[in-house]
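Supplementary Note 2. Why include the ligand at all?

Several targets in our set were suspected to adopt different conformations when bound, so apo predictions alone were not considered sufficient. For every target with a known small-molecule partner we therefore ran a joint prediction. The input for heme C is given below.
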Amino acid sequence: MDKILLLVFVGMVIGCYYDVEEDFQVNQECNVDNISYASDVLEIVSSRCYKCHAAALNLGNVTLEGYDKIKIYVNNGKLLGAVKRESGFSPMPQNESMLPSCDILTIESWVNAGAPNN
Ligand code: HEC
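The joint prediction is reproduced in token form.
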């Protein structure tokens, strides 16, 4: 009898845990209003891309460091193509899993707003 109660209890705890987890995922905010290059985009690109695409490294002959440089890849569509892993583009970050969806949305919103240097 005690064992059954224990199982029920464990079941409830696990059930709660998954509920909380689900709510967390649903409620996790991704605010893409008024994206700023300096405070939003740069944070993602410098932490996830500069290890290969800083000016001093220039891996694959691609430099993303500096507004004027990254703007080249905004304009030719390769920045979005690479992070969204569209066909015809090299999937980035190379050899790593896809960026979190909120990071991709952040970059995409910035590009769609005309990629301002703000
Ligand atoms: C581990 C190193 C590495 C990381 C990290 C990395 N890249 Fe790259 N990237 C490369 C190399 C090497 C190339 C050139 C070869 C190729 O296109 O696959 C490249 C090419 C590109 C290109 C040109 C793609 C094309 O289709 O011509 C873009 C745009 C790009 N990277 C963006 C990014 C962005 C944005 C990030 C961060 C989210 C990133 N990369 C992270 C190594 C990396």
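The chain has two domains: 1-30, 37-112. The pocket of heme C is lined by residues 48-49, 51-53, 59-60, 62, 64, 73, 78-79, 82-83, 89-90, 92-95, 99 (CB under 6 Å). Comparable summaries for the other entries are listed in the accompanying table.
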